[in-house]
């Protein structure tokens, strides 16, 4: 496939929910473009990100290769707010060039060899272009049909050639890769994710980034009574998730001593819940300090004893800040499939010594009473303990 016959390789992005925004749309688009530019910084390639009506075009430097355009497309596919990423050809704005590009884009495809069905779909964002969309469809489709003998199927084509006439150029492309959907990170505010080394919390973090939150991560380690393994896991998970938002920070709380006090306070069956409330209270204090407006956990209703409705109620009662639980209605199998898709599952499945295993009682309470938990907290002098814990956090930079 020669570059010259087709034009210049570029990347065309289709926006998702943003297009439903009314007056705020510009704010969302501006944030999205900033996020795209940030994501592309690591590629060390001079790109030009332009906003067009309803789409974003990424132009590469002169002489850029198809492989470089593919790399750009792969990278932006992880940026929330986009539904489709197309590797496209930027073609001069005249009918001849467009027809030629339509032919060339089909020429080397495997669909030609097996005489697959095809369709041409044109759109004019610039109505001054001499041909209307359906005229362009018929012209280019006719040429492809004549040259390669591919049958047309408008209803269910196996190959679609897209032609989009823009202000300064025409984009010609075929299939694309699906984006993450959702909203641009940062448009919904900031939150703090309680990040274990488990399967659920990384997925919860991803789902909230996708709804426009920029998140920090807070991990409670059993140190000094456990090894640092869980911290490495949390770190590896945050690294894996960083490609969706950038500028991720991991904070670690040495939690072992606090857990020991919970255990020695008696109340075996309530230990897990007492610990969970202490984690949430500490997280709320940290969130205030880093200006996060909500907490995020990987809870799913009924998955384990601490996630019954009554116990979730007792957790909500521990803090004033909203606790977001994006996985509340998800099955474990659904969560695992998502974890596999975003690449966190294999890290989560590595063995570690979770701090929670330090106080796994034989039978955990599924109906914890808030009054009983408050009693335990009084004995622990929780108010004081929370400040100490928040003071002792360590930041792990990526
Ligand atoms: P996960 O797979 O996310 O660990 P889980 O099914 O193991 O979840 P729990 O261990 O009960 O469930 O934890 C529920 C939620 O509490 C987690 O999703 C996470 O948000 C938070 N959490 C649990 N342990 C920790 C920890 N050590 N550090 C930070 N947050 C934690
Ligand atoms: Mg866990």
Question: What does the model show?
Answer:
The protein has 2 domains: about 5-180, VC0802-like (2-Layer Sandwich), CATH 3.30.2130.30; about 190-395, Rossmann fold. Strands 1, 2, 3, 4, 5, 6, 7 and 8 form an 8-stranded mixed sheet that branches. Strands 13-12-9-10-11-14 form a 6-stranded mixed sheet, sandwiched between helices. It contains 15 helices and 14 strands. Helix 4 (about 95-105) crosses helix 6 (about 135-150) and helix 10 (about 270-290) packs across helix 15. The protein is an alpha/beta fold. The model has no long low-confidence stretch (mean pLDDT about 95). Strand 5 (about 120-125), helix 6 and strand 6 (about 160-165) form a beta-alpha-beta unit. The radius of gyration is 26 Å and the shape is elongated. It has helices at about 5, 25-40, 65-75, 95-105, 110-115, 135-150, 200-210, 230-240, 255-265, 270-290, 310-315, 330-340, 345-350, 370-380, 380-390; strands at about 10-15, 50, 55-60, 80-90, 120-125, 160-165, 170-175, 175-180, 190-195, 215-220, 250-255, 295, 325, 395. It starts with a helix and ends with a strand. Adenosine-5'-triphosphate binds near residues 298 and 303. Magnesium ion (MG) binds near residues 196, 198 and 354.
């Amino acid at each position: 496939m020669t570059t010259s016959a087709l034009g210049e390789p570029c990347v065309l992005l289709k926006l998702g929910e943003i297009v439903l925004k009314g007056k705020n749309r510009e704010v969302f688009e501006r944030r999205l473009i900033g996020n795209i530019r940030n994501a592309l910084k690591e590629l060390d390639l001079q790109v030009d990100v332009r906003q067009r009506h309803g789409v974003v075009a990424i132009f590469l430097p002169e002489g850029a290769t198809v492989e470089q355009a593919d790399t750009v497309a792969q990278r932006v596919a992880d940026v929330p707010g986009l539904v489709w990423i197309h590797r496209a050809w930027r073609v001069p704005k005249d009918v001849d060039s467009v027809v030629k590009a339509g032919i060339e884009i089909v020429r080397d495809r495997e669909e030609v060899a097996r005489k697959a069905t095809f369709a041409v779909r044109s759109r004019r964002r610039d109505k001054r272009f001499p041909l209307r969309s359906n005229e362009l469809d018929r012209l280019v489709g006719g040429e492809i049909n004549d040259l390669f003998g591919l049958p047309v199927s408008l209803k269910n084509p196996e190959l679609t050639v897209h032609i989009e006439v823009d202000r300064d150029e025409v984009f010609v492309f075929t299939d694309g890769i699906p984006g993450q959907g959702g909203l641009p990170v940062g448009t919904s505010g900031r939150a703090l994710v309680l990040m274990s080394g488990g399967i659920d919390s990384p997925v919860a973090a991803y789902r909230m980034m996708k709804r426009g939150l920029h998140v920090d991560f807070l991990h409670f380690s059993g140190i000094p009574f456990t090894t640092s393994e869980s911290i490495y896991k949390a770190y590896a998970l945050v690294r894996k998730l960083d490609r969706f938002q950038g500028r991720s920070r991991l904070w670690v709380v040495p939690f072992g001593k606090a857990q020991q006090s919970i255990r020695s306070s008696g109340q075996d069956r309530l230990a897990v819940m007492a610990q969970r409330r202490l984690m949430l209270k500490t997280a709320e204090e940290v969130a205030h300090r880093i200006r996060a407006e909500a907490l995020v956990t990987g809870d799913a209703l009924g998955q384990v004893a601490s996630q019954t409705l009554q116990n979730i109620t007792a957790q909500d009662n521990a803090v004033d800040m909203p606790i977001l639980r994006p996985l509340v209605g998800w099955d474990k199998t659904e969560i695992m499939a998502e974890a596999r898709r975003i690449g966190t599952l294999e890290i989560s499945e590595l063995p570690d010594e979770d701090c929670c295993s330090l106080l796994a009682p034989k039978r955990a309470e599924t109906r914890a009473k808030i009054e009983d938990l408050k009693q335990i907290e009084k004995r622990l002098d929780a108010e004081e303990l929370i400040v100490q814990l928040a003071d002792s956090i360590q930041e792990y930079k990526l």
